[in-house]
Structure formats: structure tokens, C-alpha cells
Amino acid sequence: MSSTTTAQEWLERLRHLPLEQPLRLMNVCGGHERSITQAGIRSLLPDMVELIPGPGCPVCVCPEEAIYAAIQYALHHPVTLVAFGDMLRVPVNVPKGEVRSLEEAKAQGGDVRPIASPTEAVAIAAAQPERRVVFLAAGFETTTAPIAAMLAQGAPENLLVLSAARLTWPAVAMLLQSDTPGFEALIAPGHVATVMGPEEWSFVVERHGLAAAIAGFSPESLLAATWSVVRQSVEQRPFLDNCYGELVRPGGNRRGKALLDEVFEVVDAPWRGIGIIPASGYALRGDYRRHDVLNQLPDYAAEQRRRAGEMPPGCDCAKVVLGKIYPIACRLYGEACTPRTPVGPCMVSDEGACRIWWSAGHRQHST
After folding, report:
1. What is the C-alpha to C-alpha distance for residues 313 and 66, in angstroms, rounded to an integer?
2. How far apart are CA 68 and CA 99, in angstroms?
3. Is 336 exposed, middle or buried (0-12, 13-18, 19+ CB in 10 A)?
């Protein structure tokens, strides 16, 4: 596959494929969704090709009880709470008048700081060794590998981790095992495949017989992957295509994977509004558990915070994350829920489909 083929040429190739029935493609990654929406790719595709945003937003699926616990640590314990920037504005379900986000906890006097990388958490902990620093670690494999490296290299003992890290593929596997997956082909995330290897997505083809392609973030790579899965579907010859060969290699980043295996174990884990997904979470293992926040601070993730339907009333973020509806079909989109006044997490994160659609100018609510 030529790396010099332009986006326009991929579009022309797509339009010449003899597709005879509608084909729904899920693009898993929030970064993909941002590129697709900003470039207006949906409006350029053949009418029978539909792109559906998938569950690739770690902020959106971060368990409500983890964010609630982080708020309690910031408000009621002498700690510095650090988290990736988007996490500070994600609301939790509490009675009116109570603190509902880390941003509000900061306004109430909590020492809450946004960070952009694990190295910042290390620097903050090293600068104040007498004070515990709690890192709300949300993210997928790409983010979790640097966190593993941070701990393996010898993080300060006062740096504690509240892990909300997740694996990407189990959510897709869960959808494919359901009676209504909602898509017939998959565009897999290139950044995850860079770390974990393309083989992580082979189950889509081998177990479910669906076309699949790994894409990067440029319009050219995304359209190449789209063309590939449509062609596979037309020819009824599914395989896993790598359309991000510049960075994705067989086996992935072996050092990154080794660090993940050394520091974390894979466990069943909750996804906000979705429930427990088997083998989808990362928990500290072995001696690294000394950095687990629960070894030094109370567990605020009580059973009542793990209730079903963890999205606020009327919020359809879970349906958006699972590709069941488009953002504009959410009952609160553009009305009660906007980036200035987010109700659900999908309107907070730059990788959330609702925030992406709003930023691209999609204002009309669809009933």
C-alpha cells in the first residue's frame, strides 16, 4: 500500500468499490474520532459507509467511584492530588450542593494539580517528600506504559497511585460478543497497536470474521483503513490490515509491554455506565502495590458508588461510548450538557465524542 497516496485518491478508490449494502465501521479511538470530525471525513464518504465512534475515550469510561475517591482524598486528607487535565472537570453523581468534580475540590481548597505526564507526578512528589501525592491514573495502554516505566524506574515512596487504567480491546470484544454489536468492520487505534502490537486486534478477524484495519491519525491513514475494510467486506475476505506501518510493528513495543507486565496485572474492571468488563483493567502487582493508594488511605469506592447506571439522570454517554447512538441523539446534548456545563464525561474530554462534535460545530440536537 503506497504511503504517498493522497486523501483525495483514497476517497476516489472508496467511491469505486462496488458496495451493495450499508456497512457500519466502528472507529475505536477518540483521537481517530477527532481527526475524522475535524477533517469532515464522514461527509465525504459514500452514502452506504457509516463511521461510528467507539469506546476509545479513557476519561469517558473512568469509573465514577474512582473520581469520587480522588475528590475525597483532596478534600479530607493532607495530600496533593494530581491527574491528567481532562479529569479535573469530570462530574460525579452527588446531591446538589456537594463537590462534584476535582476542579470544584480545588476551588474548595484541595491541593489538586493537573499534569500532562507521569514525570510531572514524580517531580511533584520529589519536591515535597513529607507529603503524600496521589496520582489518579486514568488511561489506556499508551498512557499506562509510561506509568509502568515511572514506577519501575523507582518513583518516590510518597507517590501513590489510584489506578483507573484500562485496556482497549476488551470493550470491543464485549460488543462483538453481544447480540447487537452495531458494526460490521473495525478501524483499530494506531497508538495502542504501536505499544501492544497489531496482533492484539486479530481476534476481530479470527473469532468474528470481520474486516479490520489499524489506522494512524492523518486523513490519509484513516481513509486508507476505511478503504481497506470496505474492500475486505466487498470481497468477503477479512484480514487485519496495518495502515499505520510507519509506527506499528509486529510485536509492538516489547520494552513497553514488558514494563506493563512487570508493574501491573490485568483484572476485571468497571467502566463508567457500562459495568464490569472482564480482564479490562490494570492493577498494581507484587512489590509495586506499596504505591497503591489503598495501602495508606481509606477506600471510598463503596458498593453504593458502584451502582448500575453511573451516568447522571438523562445522560446517554454510555450509549455514545458503545456506539449505540451519535452524540447529537443524547437527550442532554447541547441543552443541559455543553462543554461549559458538562453533565456527562463525553462532553469533557478532548477524546469524548460529544466534546469533539460540539467543537466541530454540531449544535443541532437530534430526537
Report:
1. 19
2. 9
3. middle
Taking the C-alpha atoms of residue 60 and residue 186, their distance in angstroms, rounded to an integer, is 20
| Cα 214 to Cα 205: distance, rounded to the nearest angstrom | 12
* 98, three cell numbers: 456537594
Grid cell of 260 as nine digits: 506493563
Amino acid sitting at position 296: Q
Unique residue bearing C-alpha cell 478477524? 205
Return the closest-CA partner of residue 33 out of 360, 367, 336. Answer: 360
CA distance linking residue 165 with residue 163, whole number of Å: 6
Q: What are the strands of the beta sheet with 159-165, ordered from one edge?
A: 111-115, 79-84, 132-139, 159-165
Q: What whole-number distance in Å separates Cα of residue 285 and Cα of residue 253?
A: 21
| pLDDT digits 0-9 by tens, 189-239 | 999 999 999 999 999 999 999 999 999 999 999 999 999 999 999 999 999
Q: What is the pLDDT of residue 93?
A: 86
Cα distance between residue 73 and residue 76, in whole Å: 5
- Sorted by where each starts, the structural domains of the chain and their CATH numbers stand as 25-295 (3.40.50.11740), 312-358 (no CATH)
